[in-house]
Amino acid sequence: MVMVSVIVPVYNVEKELARCLDSILHQSYQNFECILVNDGSTDRAGKICDRYKELDDRVTVIHQQNSGSGYARNTGIKRAKGKYVYFADADDYLELELLEKVVEAAEQTAAELVIFGYFDDWESRQGHQEVRIITATNTFVSSKEAFRSTFEDYYFLAYRNLWNKFYLRSYLSEHHILFTDQRVGEDARFNLMVFKHLERVKTIPYPLYHYVYRDGSAVNHYHEERFQDELNLARHFRLVMESWQKEAVYEYLIDQEYTDAVRAEMKNLILCGNALPKIKKIKKIDWMMQLPEMQAAVKRRAGREKSNLYARILLLLLSGGFYRQALRIMKWQLFMRLRITVAHTLIEKKIVKAQTERGVR
User: Fold this and answer.
1) What residues does 122 pair with on adjacent strands?
2) CA-CA distance, 105 to 101, in Å (whole number)?
3) In the chain, which stretches have pLDDT less than 50?
4) CA 299 – CA 34 distance, rounded (Å)
5) Fewest CB within 10 angstroms: 20, 38, 67, 141, which?
6) Cα–Cα distance between 181 and 183 in angstroms, integer?
């Protein structure tokens, strides 16, 4: 019996794909299948998938027309034979003991979901790299009420992401959980469906996955449908909290989902791929803030925000209708982040140059 189905959607990642696949196939735990779903790649990624299939009979390759990563994962789920399902992104990579540690945790506890830590790797075009380690606690809950009462802990452990989670396939089948056609936030939408009926959840402290963030990645590009998708996600989040009868307890998390949708769209409007004139950008923000649920969420969160001065100012500007100033503040923040990144890169280059010169002497 195959224990784990590792599902990898593949789309135009020819430069990073080999590192990901090598990290999967060289796992210390070997009882798995690797399902590669080539989602209409136009580069050499599909051929690379086929080459790995020839090298290792645990690899299955499915070629399909481009349908988005969610539908690509659905294709993998329908083909999967493993007791557990694990999703990896083709431009990231795994620690070699990932499967060993999560299978052990799942088998010992009969968990429906195992959650673990990860490495946040940031790579710039200039070659600068930073690594941040995110760890989890070592906990286990075995009832719906226990999970729901401590949901905040799981929410702040990358709740939107798939790659630090390990799913019991029979649980997905029992609750008919598949990805929707939502293009932005589809991972979070999937996880909310998973969370809705969970009873047995295990977290382990080890960082086992490298999430690689790059300049120019999709998250940094303009998406016309981003706000509607983020709004749908916030509304779905609220519905799940209401189904648990926890909407009052987790009102602050619901508000965060709504306000994050506005901030994501403001960033979206600033990005270079958006050629809208400023007046239309202001009108877009005004339209978002006319939604009663958004107005209420922004106002409540502005009143609660104490620790982050920048966030408080931005929320107060939005709730007060000062959209031009709010957009300017957001643009300034993005600019400063870029300046800091460039400064780090220059300093790193000087250090490397100095070390090289000392080595030559």
Assistant:
1) 130, 213
2) 6
3) 218-219, 341-349, 351-353, 355-356
4) 47
5) 67
6) 6
Measured over the CA atoms of residue 158, residue 38, residue 79 and residue 209, the dihedral's sign is negative
**Other C-beta atoms lying within 10 Å of the C-beta of residue 51:** 14
Other residues' Cβ atoms within 10 Å of the Cβ of residue 133: 9
C-alpha 175/C-alpha 25 separation (Å) is 30
Phi/psi of residue 136, each to 5°?
-115, 170
The tokens for 321 are 């209708």
Distance CA 316, CA 210 (A): 36
**Separation between Cα atoms, residue 67 and residue 69, nearest integer Å:** 7
DSSP string, 151-191: HHHHHTTTTT-STTEEEEHHHHHHTT----S-SSSHHHHHH
Residue 147 and residue 199 in contact, taking contact as beta carbons nearer than 8 Å: yes
pLDDT given for residue 268 in this prediction: 84
The Cα 264–Cα 229 span in angstroms is: 11
Q: Are 11 and 68 in contact (CB under 8 A)?
A: no
Q: Which residue has the tokens 């009663």?
A: 292
Which residue is listed with tokens 């506005």?
262
- DSSP letter string, 64-81: E----HHHHHHHHHHH--
Whole-structure pTM value:
0.87
Confidence (pLDDT) at 126: 52
Task: Please give the Cα distance from 130 to 302 (Å, whole number).
Answer: 32
Contacts 24+ apart (CB under 8 A), 306-311: none
The dotted CATH code for 4-218 is 3.90.550.10
Share of the chain above pLDDT 70, in %: 86
Domain coordinates in residue numbering, the chain: 4-218, 221-342
Per-residue pLDDT at 181: 86
